[in-house]
Structures are given as C-alpha cells and as structure tokens.
C-alpha cells in the first residue's frame, strides 16, 4: 500500500514579508496574466504613468474581445485610497481609449466587508472585479492562490435597450457615420432578413443600426455602416466549424464578441448575393427557426 504524505503549507502575509514585495507579485502577474483567473489575457503595460494620478500597476487585455483590465495590487487589506486609485485609473484609461471595453480589477490579500459595502453603492455602474490573493509557504517553496470574491456586474445590453439609445435617422448614418453606398448594403441585408422573417424594419441609433418588429426592438442582428465598409453583427453560439465555413466562403470574419455572443463580419453587396442562402440560414439559426421545407416534412 502506497504511503500518502500530506503537506500543510504555512500561510504567509506578503505585506510583512521582506522579500516577496508588491513589485515581486506584480512581475509574476505580468509574466503570467492567466494566474489571476480572468482568462487568456496579454500584458499591455505595467507601471503605466497616469497624468496627475500616479502609475497603474498592470494593464491587461483580452485580445479576442478588445477588453482591457486596469489592475491594481494591494498587499494587506483593501482601503479607501486603494479603491479611489483603482477607479481613477480605470476612468482615465476608458476615456483615453474609448474603443475598448474597460474593467477595474483590485487584487488584495484581504477584501474587507467594508470594501464590499462601498462597492455595492456603485450598483454596477462601475465594472469592477475584486480578487483575494493568498500566499502559502512550504519549506523553500511559495504558492499563490487567486480567488474572485466580487465579479463584474453585467448590465442590460445597450443594443437591446432602446430607452437609453439615442435615436438618429438615415441621413445621420449616410453623412456622419457611413455613406449612401454602405447604407445601401444595410438595405440589401434587411431584404435578405425579411425574406426569412417578414416585418422587420431598420431602427437608426447613434452607435448602430438595429432591427425592430411591430415597433419593438429585436437586435439579434445589427449593423454599423462605416465610410469604407459595412459590418454586420449576428447573435450566434460560437463554433469553430461555423467560423471555418464563413472564412472558406470568403466572407470577411472580423471576430467574435464574447460578451454579447455575436459574430462580427464585414459584408458587401457581393456577399449578400453570392452567399444569400448561407446568410439566411444564419438568420434562422440566430432566431431558432427551421427551414420551411423541414417543417413541411415533419408535418
């Protein structure tokens, strides 16, 4: 019978440790961002200088969804100054780089109940993640664990909330955001959609062109017309097989937005004609609709 040796590591307070400093911890996270448990992130910067506001410990990015994490490290307990500093750095970065989604991250050895109460006052208006760090020692080896104690609160999708979406018109999109040519592609896409599901109209909002049926927003597909191209975003489960098929057909697949569960692709008039049946099948999949021929067979 084999013998089992149990190890009882000693818990270590990094704040009081003479060698394992905040700089040491920062370097570990910078070299291995995945250790904090937020996915396959990449390091964008560390000790990032903020105008009139000190330095941000670590800036991480999820390259798949263009999301950035402003990470602050605190040895010991969280305190008021740490909270303010973390939120301030997040605010500076999101204003400087609005093309990205941003989330503030606090990593501390002790996340206090007072901290959680204060964060609760923001009521989800500030995307913030709190991670509690624990260090252990066994002989000459050290171990770190990262436990997420407060997750980012995901608010309602702006795409689906017409009450807070600023409504514009066709002229705004033809002159300010896109061109008559790129808006014509949206019109052609709408025709393709309504052949599958009749009754949809375009709804022009400030940041996207959505869909509405009987006056009610239903943005399972939305469009963003640019000066040089038109982007279609369609809500679908992620699938490697589907991605390969899109690319093999020559459609310009940009990326997959994990937060909203949408494929984003550039479409042209040529794509809508050549791949009409395929794109209509994606419309059916997005809405959970079977082909009429399949229904007829079943009936």
How would you sum up this structure, described in words?
- The protein has 299 residues and is of the alpha+beta class.
- It has 2 domains: 10-150, 3-Layer(aba) Sandwich (Trna Endonuclease, Chain: A, domain 1), CATH 3.40.1350.10; 158-294, Aspartate Aminotransferase, domain 1 (Alpha-Beta Complex), CATH 3.90.1150.
- Helix content is 31%, strand content 32%.
- The chain has 9 helices and 14 strands.
- It has helices at 22-31, 80-96, 113-120, 170-177, 180-196, 240-248, 269-274, 276-287, 292-298; strands at 10-12, 42-49, 55-62, 67-77, 101-110, 128-138, 141-150, 200-204, 209-213, 216-217, 221-225, 230-235, 252-257, 262-267.
- The strands form 3 sheets. Strands 1, 2, 3, 4, 5, 6 and 7 form a 7-stranded mixed β-sheet that branches. It has a 4-stranded antiparallel β-sheet with strand order 11-12-14-13. A 3-stranded antiparallel β-sheet has the order 8-9-10, with helices on one face.
- β8 and β9 form a beta hairpin.
- α4 (170-177) crosses α5 and α5 packs across α8.
- The longest helix has 17 residues, at 80-96.
- The radius of gyration is 25 Å and the shape is elongated.
- The model is unreliable at 155-164 and 293-299 (pLDDT under 50).
Give me the secondary-structure topology:
Blueprint: E1 10-12, H1 22-31, E2 42-49, E3 55-62, E4 67-77, H2 80-96, E5 101-110, H3 113-120, E6 128-138, E7 141-150, H4 170-177, H5 180-196, E8 200-204, E9 209-213, E10 216-217, E11 221-225, E12 230-235, H6 240-248, E13 252-257, E14 262-267, H7 269-274, H8 276-287, H9 292-298
């Amino acid at each position: 019978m084999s013998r089992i040796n149990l190890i009882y590591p000693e818990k270590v307070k990094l704040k009081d440790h003479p060698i394992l400093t905040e700089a040491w911890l920062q370097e570990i996270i910078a070299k291995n961002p995945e250790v904090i448990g937020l996915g396959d992130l990449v390091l964008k910067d560390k000790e990032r200088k903020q105008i009139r506001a000190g330095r941000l410990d670590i800036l991480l990015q999820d390259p798949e969804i263009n999301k950035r994490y402003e990470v602050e490290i605190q040895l010991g307990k969280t305190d008021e100054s740490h909270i303010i500093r973390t939120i301030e750095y997040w605010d500076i970065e999101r204003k400087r780089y609005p093309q990205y989604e941003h989330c503030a991250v606090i990593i501390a050895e002790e996340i206090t109940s007072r901290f959680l109460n204060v964060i609760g006052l923001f009521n989800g208006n500030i995307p913030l993640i709190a991670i509690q760090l624990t260090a252990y020692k066994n002989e000459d080896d050290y171990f770190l664990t990262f436990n997420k104690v407060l997750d980012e609160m995901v608010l309602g999708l702006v795409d689906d909330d017409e009450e807070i979406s600023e409504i514009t018109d066709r002229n705004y999109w033809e002159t300010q955001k896109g061109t008559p040519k790129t808006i014509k592609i949206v019109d052609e896409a709408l025709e393709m959609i309504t052949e599958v599901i009749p009754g949809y109209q375009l709804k022009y909002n400030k940041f996207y062109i959505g869909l509405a049926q009987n006056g009610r927003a239903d943005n399972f597909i939305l469009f963003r017309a640019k000066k040089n191209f038109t982007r279609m975003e369609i809500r679908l489960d992620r699938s490697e097989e589907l991605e390969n098929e899109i690319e093999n057909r020559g459609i310009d697949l940009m990326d997959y937005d994990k937060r909203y569960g949408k494929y984003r692709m550039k479409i042209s008039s040529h794509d809508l004609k050549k791949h009409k049946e395929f794109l209509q099948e994606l419309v059916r999949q997005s809405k959970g609709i079977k082909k009429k021929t399949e229904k007829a067979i079943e009936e």
